[in-house]
Amino acid sequence: MEDDNDVTITGVTDMEALIHIPDDKPLMQLFKRLIGNDTKQNTVLTNAQILDILKKELNTDVVYIHDLELEIYLNIIKKFLKDWPQWDDFDKSVSSLKSKGDIDAIKKLLDVKYNNFRDYLKAKLDVAQPLIKNVVKKATAKKKEADDDKMNVLMEVSCTRSQLNKIFFRRPNPQQRNTIFNFIDGPTKIVLDNISIEALINWFHIKVEVNLPSFVYRFGMTHKLKHVLLNKKINETAVAPTVLNQHLQRSTNRKNASLLKLEDIQYILKEILASIPHDYHNGQLIRATLAYIETHLVRNHKSGGLYLTYYRKYMNKYAYVRYLYADVPSDSNFNNINKYDLQLQEMIYPSYYYEIGKFVKSEIISKLFIYTNWIKFECLLCNKVFLGPDMTEKLKQHILDYHFDQPDWQCTNCKSIYSMLYLAENKWEHKC
């Protein structure tokens, strides 16, 4: 070994043109170069070539592992490339067969030694891998302690929800002047998936408003989000689960808010439902929405009373997390591979709110269809309102076009992974 970056192996005569080796077998390519080295010059392997051996021959992709772990892997391969006990036997056998001009025998020898060498390296890595993980874990913990007193750097970024999902490259992109920001919009996708009525109501940041002369009611998803940009080469700390307070929270701003009876609200909801014609526009969505309202009111106000005010509640016991990034096309920049794995950690604390803005029991609803746009949906991410006869289809198409292709979420407690569609259809709840 000449220095920290190179490993050196001595080889023996030139027969490269007589032996064909596939590109996906870099160890076999190494043997071929050694066979063809008549001048006994040194065959030097660079770090990039060793990475190629790790990936293609040993099924170890080191692109996004910790930099200390990568350094250990490189040193292990360098050591055992040099110290393989069969090098002398290989050299003598090749010299003997070359003197006889027996190309077929050389090819057979090459196959045997290649398999022996690959198995030898695999065995060494199998022993080393758990030890490497332990060393990296301890080193990361020490570095975290040392960094705790350092000032955090905050950055404010203005972007759309779809842009946020892939706003950072995992490492500097050499095709875009080594920037970590992904400013190029992706291709338009044709989404063939369908979405249920339940998912529409519970989708990410959807607000619903019922506005009638006798009853005004608003509810929606108000998920709290937290973002931290991590370099996973150095930030290996797992997300600790935080138990969310699932008790109903009531606003105290309206000190003189009227106390209402749950049965009176249920009466109004039944009146609205009974007033909807069978062939009413958006009938399926509206009926599901009214059922949703009643379900939450009954669950949260079992005692029978509620105030004319604002309520809020977390929907799941634990937060969810996911990591957002854009992959960089493969490149040979070893320094980038060794230093960066940028991922935007997004934590979500799913919650919903509802508010009774007006309630007059005495006003009976007999002809609901005479009121125009009495119910509307709004996407808070896009500030887009959906109402009128085609409200259901436009809302569904908007979500499919702009918000459906979302990375999955992982529970911070049980580590189970769920799609956005699954969570929306199940009111963002699951049992660990």
How would you concisely characterize the structure shown here?
With 432 residues, this protein is α+β, with helices and mostly antiparallel strands. It contains twelve helices and 18 strands.
Structural notes for this entry:
- This protein folds into two domains: 7-147, no CATH class; 197-425, no CATH class.
- The strands form five sheets. Strands 8-11-14-6-5-15-16 form a seven-stranded antiparallel sheet. The protein has a five-stranded antiparallel sheet with strand order 7-13-12-17-18.
- A hairpin with a 5-residue loop joins β17 and β18 (417-418).
- It is elongated and about 110 Å long.
- The protein is built from twelve helices and 18 strands.
- α1 (26-35) crosses α5 and α8 (262-274) runs antiparallel to α9 (283-300).
- Helices cover 37% and strands 20% of the residues.
- The protein is an alpha+beta fold.
Number of domains: 2
User: Strand order, biggest sheet?
Assistant: 8-11-14-6-5-15-16
The helix fraction, in percent, is 25-40%
Low-pLDDT stretches are 8-14, 38-42, 186-192
- Write down the Rg: 32 Å
Total beta-strand segments = 18
Topology pattern, helix = H, strand = E = EHEHHHHHEEHEEEEEHHEEEHEEEEHEEH
Query: Roughly what fraction of the amino acids lie in strands?
Result: 15-25%
Query: How would you sum up the major sheet?
Result: 7 strands, antiparallel
Task: Name the quaternary structure.
Answer: single chain
What average pLDDT do the residues reach? Answer: 78
What's the overall geometry? elongated
Please work out how many helical segments DSSP would assign.
Answer: 12
Q: In angstroms, what separates the terminal alpha carbons?
A: 52 Å
Structural class: alpha+beta
